Amino acid sequence: MNTKITVTSSSKGNDNLIILADKSSFEWASGILTASEIQIVKDAAQKDIPYIFLPQNKKIVVIQFLKNSSNEYNDKEDARLAGYEILSLLAHYKVPSIFLRNESNLNRSLEYLEGMVLGNYQFLKYFNDKKEKEHKLKEIKISTKTLPKKEIETLQTVTTATCKARDLVNEPQSFLSAMQLSEEIRAIGKEFGFSVKVLNKKKIEALKMGGVIAVNRGSETPPTFNILEWKPAKAKNKKPIVLVGKGIVYDTGGLSLKPTAHSMDFMKSDMAGAATVVGTIAAAAKAKLPLHIVALVPATDNRPGKDAYAPGDVITMFDGTTVEVLNTDAEGRLVLADALHYAKKYKPELVLDFATLTGSAVRATGPEAICFMGTADDEIKEKIETSGYCVYERLVEFPLWREYGEQLKSNIADIKNLGGPTAGMITAGKFLEHFTSYPWLHFDIAGPAYLQKADAYRTKEGTGVGVRLLFNFLQNY
Fold first, then answer.
1. Domain encompassing residue 121
2. Can 468 be counted among the known catalytic residues?
3. Which of 108, 143, 178 finishes a domain?
C-alpha cells in the first residue's frame, strides 16, 4: 500500500491539519487556534514538547516542533522520524486524510512527508483480514505554497518505487520464482515507462553464463536474465550507467545448506539487490531523468536438488574464467559476475551493483550502513556518499587492496569463490572486481535490506534500501 499525496492550493475548513512550526513565532495561529489553544502551544514550546494534539469541531490539529541542530543531515532525518512517529496518533483517531502545512522558517516538509509515506507502508497481500489491518490514513494533502509541485511529484514517485521494491522483497518464494520476478518486472516496466527484455534458460545456456547456470542446477525452476532500459531522447550521458542487482529469489545455501533459524527463514530477501535496481530505474523513468540507464538482474533460486553444483566443482564463467567452488552458499557473486561481464557490451560510463552478499557486511556495520567498495574515481564515491547522507542510507567504504586477491587464488582453477575467514565482504567484492573493466562500485546491502523489526519508517522486513540513495545520486549526476 502506498499513501496518496494530493497537491492542493490550500486547506479547506474541515481538513485535519499538521502544522510544522517554530517555537518562537505564532503569527500563523490566529484564525486557526483559539486564544487558549495558542497559549497551550506556547507553553508546550517552552517545555520542549515535540507536538501538541488539539481536537476541534469535526477535525484535529497537530502542532509539530522539529529538532534543530548544526547537522543538516541529522535534522532532515529527525524530520522523517517525526513524520513517522505522528502516524500512531493519526491511527488512534482513525484519520483518513490530513493536510500538512509548514509555518517554520526551516522548511523540512519534504522529509516529514517522506517519513509519513514510507512509515505508512503495509504488505497485506496474504492476510484474510487485510481490511481490518489496513491503515486508515490514505491521503496526505499539501499545498504548493509549502513545496513546489515538482518536488512533491518526485517524492511520490520515489516513495512509490521504494514501496514497489519492498513488495518484491516481501513476496515469499512460493510466489516469486525467477520467472515470476520477470513477470513482475515487466508489469513495473509497463507502469513506470521503461523497457524490459528477458533472456530465458535456453538463451542463458547459449551465452554460456556459467555462474547463473551452475547456481540454477539444483532448482526445478529455470533462471532468467532480465535487461531493463530507460533511454530518453536527450540523455546527458553518451554511455549508459548500468545497475546490476542480485536476483537470488530464494537461497537455501545449496549443498552448503544454511541453518533454518535466523538464516534460511528469511532468504526470500536474497533478491533485495534486484528489487533496488528495479525500483531505481522505475523511479528514474517515471521522473524522466535525462540519463540513459540499463539495469541487469540475473535471477534464480539456489537449492540442493539432485543435479546441484557441489563444493569442489570447477565452473566456467561467462567471461571464460574458471572458478573453484568451495561453498555453494557463496552463490550471489557467481550470478553477479556473469551480469558484470554482460555489462561490458554497453561500454558503460559507470556500473553500480547491489546485493545482499555477505554476513560479514552485517557484522561489520549492522543495519545502520551499506558497505561499499570499487574502482570508480573519488569524485563519484564522494557524490554517492553525499547522497547516502541526504537520504540517510549511509555508506562505509572498504578497501580492495591486492592482498585480498591473494585469498582467492585456487590450486586448480583461475580463482575460487571464497576467501579466508575474515573480511568476507571485501574478498567477495574482490571476486566481483575480477569481472569488471570499467568504473565500478559494489554495494553490499545485507545489513539494511531486510529487518527483523521495524526501524521507524524503515518498516519490518523489506526496506527498499538503495532506491532513494540511487535516485538521489542519479538526479544529481
1. 4-143
2. no
3. 143
